[in-house]
UniProtKB/TrEMBL annotation:
It comes from the Bacteria. Keywords: Cell cycle, Cell division, Cell membrane, Membrane, Transmembrane, Transmembrane helix. This is FtsQ-type POTRA domain-containing protein. InterPro entries: Cell_div_FtsQ/DivIB_C (IPR005548), FtsQ_DivIB (IPR050487), POTRA (IPR034746), POTRA_FtsQ_type (IPR013685).
Length: 225
C-alpha cells in the first residue's frame, strides 16, 4: 500500500493576472493596427458613376491612398461626394483591410433646357441640377411654359433609354400636346402627356419605319405620311 504520508504533487497556480495582461496587450495592438501604415488604403472602388468620372469621385471623397483605414471617416467622405451637383446620393464604407467602397446614385439627365444661352440639365423629378453640356439621351425641351414644364419632363422621362438619344427636341404645342423632333429632322406627334408608357413603345417602332412625320397620339393606331 502507498505510504499515506507520501507528499502529493502540488498543482501550480494559473497566473490569471499575467494572462489578462497579455490579452489586454493583444487587444490593444489589434485595435491600434488599423491606425497604422500596416492597414492603409490602397483601393477606392466606385460604383454607380455614369456621367461623373470615377477618378473625380475618388478625389471628392478626400481620402488619400496610404491613409490608415482606421482614420477614414466614411460619413464625411460621403458628404463630400454628395455635395457634387451630379450626385443624388452617396454611401461610403470601409472595405477591410485596405479598401474603401463608394456607391453613388447620379441624377438622371433626361432633359435639358436653354436658359440665357446655358444648358440646364433636368432630372426625372424635374429638378434643374447642373449647368453642363447635355449628355447623349438628354432631350432638349423647347417652348414649354413653366406651368407645363412638369408634364414635358414626364414625357421625356417616359421615352426609353434606347429611343431617347434619337430625340433631339421636345416641343410644346398650343393645345397642351407635344411634338418630338428626331435627330434626322423627322417629326413625331406625341399628343397629350397621357398614356406615355405606351406611346414610348410606339416611338421605338416608329424609329424603324420609313416616313417623315408620324402620329402616335393614339399608340394603338400609329399613322405616318
Amino acid at each position: 500500500m502507498p505510504d499515506s504520508t507520501e507528499e502529493q504533487p502540488k498543482h501550480r497556480k494559473i497566473p490569471y493576472g499575467a494572462i489578462a495582461a497579455t490579452v489586454a496587450i493583444v487587444v490593444a495592438v489589434c485595435a491600434a493596427v488599423p491606425f497604422t501604415p500596416l492597414m492603409s488604403v490602397n483601393d477606392i472602388a466606385v460604383e454607380g458613376s455614369v456621367n461623373l468620372p470615377e477618378e473625380e469621385v475618388r478625389n471628392l471623397t478626400g481620402i488619400d491612398y496610404g491613409t490608415p483605414i482606421g482614420k477614414v471617416k466614411p460619413r464625411r467622405a460621403a458628404e463630400n461626394v454628395a455635395a457634387n451637383p451630379w450626385v443624388d446620393s452617396a454611401t461610403v464604407s470601409r472595405a477591410w483591410p485596405n479598401g474603401v467602397s463608394v456607391e453613388i446614385t447620379e441624377h438622371d439627365p433626361v432633359a435639358w433646357v436653354d436658359i440665357d444661352g446655358q444648358p440646364h440639365l433636368i432630372d426625372r423629378e424635374g429638378r434643374d441640377f447642373i449647368v453642363a453640356a447635355p449628355p447623349a439621351g438628354a432631350v432638349e425641351i423647347q417652348g414649354v411654359a413653366q406651368e407645363r414644364f412638369a408634364q414635358a419632363v414626364e414625357v421625356a422621362s417616359s421615352i426609353s433609354d434606347v429611343a431617347r438619344p434619337r430625340v433631339r427636341a421636345l416641343k410644346a404645342n398650343g393645345d397642351y400636346t407635344y411634338t418630338l423632333v428626331l435627330d434626322d429632322d423627322r417629326v413625331v406627334q406625341w399628343g397629350a402627356a397621357t398614356d406615355n408608357a405606351n406611346k414610348a413603345l410606339a416611338l421605338e417602332t416608329v424609329l424603324q419605319l420609313e416616313g417623315r412625320e408620324f402620329n402616335i397620339s393614339n399608340p394603338e393606331l400609329v399613322t405616318s405620311r
